[in-house]
Amino acid sequence: MKKNILFLISFLFISFLNSQENKEFDYELVGALVLDSKQLFSYKIEFNSSETSFIEGYSYTDLGGENETKSYIRGYYNPKSKTIQFKESDILYTKSKYLPEEFCFIKFDGVFKGETKKKSLNGDFIGIYDDKDTCATGKIKLVSTKFLEKKVKKFYKKVEKIDKIKKIDSVVKEELKPVNYLKKFSETKIGSGENVSVFVYTSKMKMEIWDYGKEDGDKITILLNNIPVLENFSVAKKRKSIILNLKKDKNIIKIITVDAGKIKTNTTKLKLYDFRREYEVVADLEEGKSASINVVKLKVKKK
Fold first, then answer.
1. How many angstroms separate the Cα of 7 from the Cα of each of 14, 40, 178?
2. Which of 86, 116, 146 is the last residue of a domain?
3. Can you spell out the DSSP letters for 18-40?
4. pLDDT per residue as tens digits for the range 106-151
C-alpha cells in the first residue's frame, strides 16, 4: 500500500512539472487518467467557470509522453451539488501519430471539490470516437496544481537536507529546484527528430521566432514543405515575424539547427497564430539536428 501511495505521488509530481503554462485559469488540476484496462496516463485540466456555471478550457493527456495531446473542454459545474461534467473536443496539438478521426475524446461526470484548500476532482469517464463509438472507460483522479506545488517545495527541502550530509552534484541540485523544473517544463517541447501536429483553420498563418533561453548565437533554417522561409537565421530575444502560406491539406514546418551557439542545444521558441487559436512550441535541438511541426488544415464543420 505504501509503495502504491509513493508511486502515485511521484506520478502526480512528474505530471505537474510537465503541465505548467503561463496563462491563468480559475481552476487547474492535474493527476491521473486510469483506464479499466489498468493503463495509467497523466492528465490535466484547466478551465474558467462563468456565473451560469458553464466551464470552458483545455485538457492535456499523456503530459511529456509520446502521445501528448491538448484539446478543448466544455461543460458545467454546479458548486452547490459539487457535480461537474465536461467533454473534450477539437484537438489543438498532438505528438501522437493517430489521425484526428481516430482520437478517443473524454466525456466525464464526477465530483469537484472546488472550494476547499485541497481542490480535487474524482469520477468516471467514457472515451468516445468522433463516430460516437465507445473507445475506453475508467476513472479520473486530479488535485489542484497549487497543492502539488507545495509537495514539490517540500521535496526540494529534503534534497537540501540530504545535500548537507552527502553532497549532491551541483548541476543535479540546480535542476531539482522547483523554479527550474517549472521553467523547464513550461511549454510544449520538441526534441531532435520529434514531431508535433497542430490543427488550423487558416490559409495564412503568422509565425514568430525568438530565443527562449540565453542569447548565445543560435542559428536556424526553417523550411515550409521543403522550401526555405528562413536560412541561417540568427535567433535573438527580439521576435522575428513571418507569414506562411499554407497548402490545402498538410504542411510541414521543419526547424534545423545550423549552429547551436555557445550552449550545446538551441532553444528556439516558435509561436503560430491561427485566427481561432495560438500555439507555442520550444524546439530544443542539437546542432545539425531537426524537428518538425505538421500543420493540418481543417475544414469548418457546417451546422
1. 11, 12, 19
2. 146
3. T---SS--SEEEEEEEEETTS-E
4. 999 999 987 777 889 999 999 998 768 899 999 999 988 777 777 7
Which tens digit of pLDDT belongs to each residue from 171-188?
Answer: 555 656 655 554 444 457
Instruction: For residue 103, give the amino acid letter.
Output: F
For strand 204-211 and strand 265-273, is the pairing parallel, antiparallel, or unpaired? antiparallel
Structural domain ending residue among the three candidates 146, 165, 198: 146
| Residue carrying C-alpha cell 495531446 | 69
- Cα of first residue to Cα of last residue in the chain, in angstroms, is 51
Q: Rg of the Cα trace of the chain? A: 21
For 8, the grid coordinates are 502515485
Contact 78, 53 (CB under 8 A): yes
Q: Give 250-268 as a DSSP string.
A: EEEEEEEEEE-TTSSEEEE
What residue numbers bound the domain in which 211 lies?
A: 188-297
Burial, 226: exposed, middle or buried (Cβ in 10 Å; 0-12, 13-18, 19+)? exposed
